[in-house]
Write a structure and sequence with these properties.
Helix 1 packs across helix 2. The N and C termini lie far apart (about 60 Å). By secondary structure, the chain is α/β, with parallel strands linked by helices. The strands form four sheets. It has a six-stranded parallel β-sheet with strand order 3-2-4-5-7-6, with helices on both faces. A six-stranded parallel β-sheet has the order 15-14-16-17-19-18, sandwiched between helices. It has 22 helices and 19 strands.
C-alpha cells in the first residue's frame, strides 16, 4: 500500500499507519495486543515502508526507540498496549526524557467509553493519560478517528522542534472506526532556534573578552548533534572542551582542545568564563559546578528550567545547543590560540588517577583498540562501564550512549537493539554486567529473529557488583541481597543459535571483539571477573542523601 492520500474510507488503524509512513517513519518497536489489533492491521498495509520490530518486553520497545533515535538522529517510535504495557514501557520513557531523546510513544488505551469510569476493563489503570503526560514532554489522547493523522503529525512537528519524548494515546474503538480524513503532508524539519539575538550577542561578547574560556558540554549537546559546532566553537575561542558524565560523546576526544571528563575539576577552577552547553550545570549531588571565584557563567540550553536555582548564571541563552553554538561562532572574529598550554599534563594527570583501577582500565583500552572509530557503544551500569565513562575515547558522532541521570540498570542490551536496527553499517557493542544483562536477555531472541549483528558483552561476577562492594565498605564487610546465579553464558548463546566467545583477560577480550566485528553477526562475549577496585574513590560517588 502506498502513502497516497487518495484512498477509500479506512480504519483508524490504517490512518495511523498511513500517517506514520507519510512522516517518513521506517521502523517501529513494540508488542502487539488486543487493543492494538487494528493498529497492527494498519501497519500490515504499509509493511514495505515500515518495519515492525517485535520485542520481548515493552521496556525494550521504548529503550530501543531511544537507542535508535540517539544513534541516528531520527525519531524513534514505540507502540505498546495500555495499562501494564505502558507501565512496563515507563523506564524507557523516563530514560528518553532524561537524555532528551526524540521518541514518539504510541500507547494503546482502553475503549473510549471506559476511560475514567473505573469499570475494571482489560489493562485499565487509574489515569493512564496523566501518567503518560508526566513521563513525556507532551501527550495527546485521540477520541475520534478523524483526529489520528493530525495528532501524529503534531507529535512529529513537536519532536522536530525540541527534545524529549512525545506521546499519542489511541483507544481500540478509535482504531476500529472509519475515517475519510486524508493524510497530512510531512513538513521538513525546521532549524531549531539558536536563541534571541540579544542573548547570543551578550554571550559572544563575554566569550570574546575572556582570557581563559572553557566549554562544558552536557547531554543536551549530544541530543542536538552539536559535534561539529562544538569543535568549531572551541577552535574559535582557543577553549578547552570538557564533558559532563552525560555529555560524553558530544565531541571527538581527539580534538586538540578536548580533555577527558575528570579534567573539568582543574579547568573550571582556572577559567574566567565558562560556557555551559546543553547541561543542567549541576554535579551528581545536585549542587552547582565548582568554578573559580568571580568566573562568568554562561548557559546555553533549550530548556529554561535549567537556569533556575541553585544555579546563578551571568548570561542565559534559551536555544538549541547545535544552532546556538553555531550562532556564537558566527559572532566571533576568527580563531584564537589556545590559552591552556599544559593540556597534555592534565591528560596525563587524569590517566595517572586511574592507574589503580585495574583490570577495568585495561579492558577499556583493549576495547578501544579493537573497535573501529564509528562503533556505537551502549554503555551500561557495570564495573568496566563506569571506567569506560571516563576512559573510553569517542571518535565519531552519535556513537556513545548511556542512561543519563536516570541510571536505569538493565537498559543497555534493549537499547542496543534499537541502535543495531538504526545502524546496519556500523558495529554496535552492548557493554553489560551480569546484573543488568539479566533484565533484557530475552531480547537475544529479538536479535536473532531480525539477524542484528549486535555484539553483546557480559562481565560476569555473580553479583550486583557495585552494590555488593558499597555494602561491604559501609557495613564492615556485610552485604545482603547482592548475589546472583547466572546461566552459562556460552550455553545461553548456543541455545539462541548465537555465536559465543569467552574472554578471561583484556588481551583475549580485544581479540574476541575484533573477531566479532569481522564476523558481523549476532554474538555474545562472556568475560568472567572477580571483585574489582572501587571507581568512585576517583570520580566521586553519587549523592545518596547522607
Amino acid at each position: 500500500m502506498t502513502t497516497d492520500s487518495e484512498t477509500p474510507v479506512i480504519t483508524g488503524g490504517i490512518s495511523m499507519a498511513r500517517q506514520l509512513a507519510t512522516e517518513g517513519v521506517t521502523h517501529i518497536f513494540g508488542i502487539p495486543g488486543v487493543q492494538l489489533d487494528y493498529a497492527m492491521n494498519g501497519l500490515s498495509k504499509f509493511a514495505e515502508e515500515i518495519a515492525f520490530i517485535a520485542t520481548r518486553h515493552e521496556q525494550t520497545a521504548t529503550y530501543a526507540a531511544d537507542g535508535y533515535s540517539r544513534t541516528t538522529g531520527r525519531i524513534g517510535v514505540s507502540l505498546v498496549v495500555p495499562g501494564p504495557g505502558v507501565l512496563n514501557a515507563g523506564a524507557g520513557l523516563v530514560t528518553a526524557l532524561a537524555c532528551s531523546s526524540k521518541v514518539l510513544f504510541l500507547a494503546g488505551q482502553i475503549p473510549t467509553r471506559g476511560i475514567g469510569a473505573d469499570l475494571g476493563l482489560l489493562h485499565e489503570i487509574p489515569d493512564q493519560s496523566g501518567l503518560v503526560a508526566q513521563l513525556c514532554r507532551s501527550s495527546t489522547l485521540v477520541t475520534d478517528p478523524d483526529q489520528i493523522a493530525g495528532a501524529i503529525h503534531g507529535a512529529m512537528v513537536a519532536l522536530a522542534a525540541g527534545p524529549g519524548p512525545v506521546a499519542v494515546e489511541i483507544p481500540p474503538d478509535v482504531l476500529y472506526r472509519r475515517t475519510d480524513g486524508p493524510a497530512i503532508g510531512a513538513e521538513p524539519w525546521g532549524t531549531p532556534p539558536a536563541g534571541s539575538a540579544a542573548d547570543l550577542d551578550a554571550a559572544a561578547d563575554r566569550l570574546a573578552a575572556a582570557e581563559r574560556p572553557v566549554i562544558y558540554v552536557g547531554g543536551g549537546a549530544c541530543a542536538a548533534g552539536a559535534w561539529e559546532e562544538l569543535a568549531s566553537l572551541a577552535t574559535a575561542l582557543g577553549a578547552p572542551l570538557v564533558a559532563s558524565p552525560n555529555g560524553k560523546g558530544g565531541f571527538d576526544d581527539r580534538h586538540p582542545l578536548a580533555v577527558m571528563p575528570l579534567g573539568h575539576k582543574e579547568l573550571l577552577q582556572r577559567a574566567d568564563v565558562v560556557l555551559l552547553v546543553g547541561t543542567r550545570g549541576l554535579d551528581a549531588r545536585g549542587r552547582p559546578l565548582e568554578t573559580a571565584a568571580g568566573a562568568t557563567l554562561i548557559s546555553l540550553n533549550s530548556d529554561p528550567r535549567a537556569f533556575g536555582p541553585p544555579r546563578v548564571f551571568d548570561v542565559t541563552v534559551t536555544g538549541d545547543a547545535r544552532t546556538g553554538a553555531a550562532a556564537i561562532v558566527q559572532r566571533l572574529a576568527g580563531e584564537r590560540s589556545p590559552w591552556c598550554h599544559d593540556l597534555d599534563e592534565i591528560r596525563e594527570w587524569i590517566t595517572d588517577q586511574f592507574a589503580p583501577l585495574e583490570p577495568q582500565r585495561s579492558y577499556v583500552a583493549a576495547m578501544r583498540a579493537a573497535l573501529p572509530d564509528n562503533t556505537v557503544l551502549i554503555n551500561e551500569l557495570t564495573q568496566v562501564g563506569y571506567a569506560a565513562r571516563q576512559l573510553f575515547p569517542v571518535h565519531h558522532p552519535r556513537s556513545y550512549v548511556d542512561p543519563g541521570y536516570q541510571g536505569t540498570l538493565g537498559y543497555g542490551y534493549p537499547t542496543a537493539v534499537g541502535a543495531a536496527v538504526g545502524n546496519p553499517d556500523r558495529p554496535v557493542v552492548s557493554l553489560n554486567g551480569d546484573g543488568g544483562f539479566g533484565y533484557g536477555l530475552a531480547e537475544m531472541a529479538t536479535v536473532m529473529q531480525y539477524e542484528l549483528p549486535l555484539i553483546g558483552v557480559v562481565f560476569t561476577d555473580g553479583a550486583y557488583g557495585n552494590v555488593r562492594r558499597m555494602h561491604k565498605q559501609q557495613f564492615d564487610g556485610v552485604h545482603h541481597g547482592t548475589d546472583l546465579t547466572n546461566p552459562d553464558m556460552l550455553k545461553l548463546a548456543d541455545a539462541f543459535g548465537m555465536t559465543g566467545y569467552r574472554a578471561e583477560s583484556p588481551e583475549e577480550f580485544g581479540r574476541a571483539l575484533a573477531t566479532a566485528v569481522d564476523a558481523n553477526e549476532p554474538c555474545l562475549i562472556d568475560v568472567p571477573l572477580g571483585e574489582l577496585p572501587d571507581p568512585w574513590a576517583i570520580v566521586g560517588r553519587p549523592w545518596t542523601g547522607r
